[in-house]
């Protein structure tokens, strides 16, 4: 009889323990699975200094860049960009060898030899693509061609242009840019006397930059 009472008591305690466990589990709030730790990659950023090189074609005829009086154009550039939201502002200096792009003047020809420029830049970025405009001051060296008696040397003028640049990994980017350069009052001496003329030039160039 005592054994039967002990067995009943044990069964009752086991049932109470099971019921308590079920109530505790029911009282626990639902615990969702932990959120994923994946994070989107950071947006491309154009801020920073850069150096690079460019090459292209200089021409004096318009609108056909492949008309006569063409010359090569290649050189180097360095600058700094600052990004604010999608907007970009920056500054750049560049130097170019111009390869004798010719200009007609009264009684002869002038040839471009070298150009240095300092430019401001402003544009919009579309992630890794930058579309921009540029403007600044340019110094161009002219040497005498057929019929011209004097080497003009360096003359100052203004530069405006536009371009598109594509960024890649590792700080590398590639660009395509057009520049229009106007140099006023270039004086030449020929058999027809001394004259002054505004010299207008065009350059289409491709380049690469390495950002830091």
Class derived from helix and strand content? mainly beta
Helical stretch tally: 1
**Topology, number of strands:** 9
Q: Uncertain spans, ≥5 residues at pLDDT below 50?
A: none
**Beta-strand fraction estimate:** over 45%
Query: Which percent bin holds the helix content?
Result: 10-25%
Q: What's the overall geometry?
A: elongated
- Average pLDDT works out at 84
Distance between the termini: 91 Å
* SSE sequence, one letter per element: HEEEEEEEEE
Question: Largest sheet, described in full?
Answer: 8 strands, antiparallel, barrel
Radius of gyration: 36 Å
- Please state how the strands of the largest beta sheet are arranged side by side: 1-2-3-5-6-7-8-9
Structure description:
By secondary structure, the protein is mostly beta strands. The protein is 12% helix and 61% strand. It has one helix at residues 2-27, and strands at 48-59, 71-84, 87-97, 102-105, 108-126, 129-144, 153-167, 172-190, 193-211. The protein has an 8-stranded antiparallel beta barrel. The chain is elongated.
Helix and strand arrangement:
Layout lengths: L1 H26 L20 E12 L11 E14 L2 E11 L4 E4 L2 E19 L2 E16 L8 E15 L4 E19 L2 E19 L1
Antiparallel strand pairs: 1-2, 1-9, 2-3, 3-5, 4-5, 5-6, 6-7, 7-8, 8-9
